[in-house]
Amino acid sequence: MSSYSFETTMKFKNRGDMEKAEDWINANIKGLWALEFLGMQEEMSVDTGMRSNVLKVLFKFGRKEDFERFRNEYVLGKPSSAPKAAGKAPEKPKGFFARLFS
């Protein structure tokens, strides 16, 4: 049996939202992952006072990098951190003509 060391729980308003999360994981996660449906829960909106059902889902990841990427990019909506640009290349010493015409 596979071991999943990193877990996060999310709530979704409908099945379509949960499927979007699954699609994102399929497209972006390289390691092992699993989804466990925990059930439905009725919540009351603070703003409107109306009740709505939400789906409670547990996502499990085998790699820390995958868990952090899902949490940061999908859950928190932070843009992916692009690879850091290499430092500025050291300047070449100016040659004779470069010094002459500068």
Strand-pairing-aware structural class:
alpha+beta
Number of domains: 1
State the shape. elongated
Count every helix, treating DSSP H or I runs of 4 or more residues as helices.
3
Give the distance, in angstroms, between the N- and C-terminal Cα atoms: 69 Å
Secondary structure: helix percent: 25-40%
- Biggest sheet statistics: 3 strands, antiparallel
Beta-sheet strand percentage? Answer: 25-35%
Radius of gyration: 24 Å
Protein architecture, described:
By secondary structure, this protein is of the alpha+beta class. It has one domain (4-75). Helices cover 31% and strands 29% of the residues. The protein has a three-stranded antiparallel sheet. The mean pLDDT is 83.
Topology:
Blueprint: E1 6-12, H1 15-28, E2 33-44, E3 51-61, H2 64-75, H3 96-101
Antiparallel strand pairs: 1-3, 2-3
Describe the structure in brief.
With 102 residues, this protein is an alpha+beta fold.
List key phrases describing it:
102 residues, 29% strand, 3-stranded antiparallel sheet
